Amino acid sequence: MIRYALNCGQGHRFDSWFQSAGAFEALAERGLVSCAVCGGTEVTKALMAPRVSGADAPEAPPPARPLSQPAHPAEQMLRALREHLATSSTYVGGRFAQEARAMHLGEAEDRPIHGEAKLEEARALIEEGIQILPLPILPPDKTN
Question: What is the pTM of this model?
Answer without folding.
Answer: 0.50
